[in-house]
Design a protein that fits this description.
Elements (H helix, E strand, L loop, with lengths): L2 H4 L4 H5 L2 H9 L4 E3 L5 E3 L2 H18 L3 H17 L2 E4 L2 H8 L8 E5 L4 H15 L5 E5 H6 L4 H15 L3 E11 L2 H6 L1 H18 L3 E5 L11 H22 L7 E5 L10 H14 L9 E4 L22 H15 L4 E3 L12 H4 L4 E4 L1 H9 L5 H14 L10 H8 L8 H5 L3 H21 L6 H7 L11 H9 L7
Parallel strand pairs: 3-6, 4-5, 4-11, 5-6, 6-7, 7-8, 8-9, 9-10, 10-11
Antiparallel strand pairs: 1-2
Helix pairs in contact: 4-5, 4-9, 5-9, 5-22, 7-9, 7-20, 9-11, 11-12, 12-13, 13-14
Amino acid sequence: MPESLNSVATDQDILESRTVVALLERVRRAVTVDDESRVTVEDANKLRHGGIDALVLAAVFGADDNEKDTARWLIGELGQQLGIRPASIHDLYMARGRGEVSGFTVPAINIRASSYETARAMFGAAVELQVGALICEIARSEIGYTDQRPAEYVAVMTAAAIKEGWTGPLFIQGDHFQVNAKKYATDADAELRSVRDLIREAIHAGFYNIDVDTSTLVDLSKDGIAAQQETNYSLSAELTAFIRHLEPEGVTVSVGGEIGEVGTENSTPEELRGYMDGYRRELKSQLAGLSKISVQSGTSHGGVVLPDGSIAEVAIDLDTLQRLSHIAREEYQLAGAVQHGASTLPEEAFGRFPEIETAEIHLATGFQNILFDHPSLPDELRERMYDHIRKEFAGERGSNDTEEQFIYKTRKKALGEFKRELWELPQSARAEIRQTLRDKFAFLFQQLGVSDTAETVRRHVSPTDRLHGGPSAVRIKAAADDWDLSD
């Protein structure tokens, strides 16, 4: 047991700290905490109309760890009382693999920028359309450049759901928990340790859906599909077993695999079978396996940027996507195939995904673009963000990149540095941006067929209560993140 686990402050110590007392005072008309660290919603209306805003602000920008930990703990407890519980989508996807559920494509939305406002827009549209089949996700790379660790991300998503009155199983996903090929080639053990550490941190925080991405290690120089996919499927099975070791009792984390890196050649049935057959051989028979499989069908993350900064039209291969989804369901009882890099596709493309029974679609850059290009974002702030990119990331500019191409591809890396300024935009500007985002979410939910899926989700997914004894539990989990549980 690491020393840090033995030096965690008690609940009483934390609740009596100066910053926490001040926080509890700010929300006392909406929330109370008794001497046994039991949390009570005193007035749900007051909580939604002010109290939750104070709590989420403290969860992200608290003056010290006591305030941040307490705010995150409170948000989690309040969410569960109001019917918002972190959950795995595994059982819904297994039902789809058995043919019991069909006709929609689950949107997995990477919330990078102005996360609270973006999530509010998303959940607001979901309430209006009764959407339950919905995933909030963040990738390994995004966690870094947006400055959002898993515990913070879960708190912000939960707070946004509370604010908008959305309820149901809350699917939070680690997207592209990816093995970096260059780092793996230099020091495989260190790179795998980094991925395992992130998985551990994410599961502790409430990420019960994780996409394991070792597709970067597919070696096309080898002879035969099985040999090319061997490192990919072997490490996918190894990381799946690690996830099963960590998942809480009563939870089967939804695990996704990937057979081809996004932006490369389109995937084939032979690759899917080579990966899945090898994966099943490697995985211990008593363990639950994958729920879905990510494939490449012609898209790229963020789209292909033209010299003037516009996005090139994408020739997405829907026939490949449909064929691979069918194989995944019929031969391996998975939910189907997953489409990445789709948010910049033409609007008329989205209605095709549920028609061809795509299981899941990942959407990210389009929402980020709405923020950066919105007329309500102050020009002065936008230009300072771009100046930051020009200064700090000049080395990432390609030799043939125009200014527009460089800015478009790199501006996401300003999000962490300017997180607080974006959070504190004038209320009117935030409301206008949020409305634009909400309209976009509503359109996508309707096109993807997930309207009126709340009841379907509740029928197949039954998340368990996971109440913590007090804010010190947050510290215990954080300390455990530093303890190699595989020892």
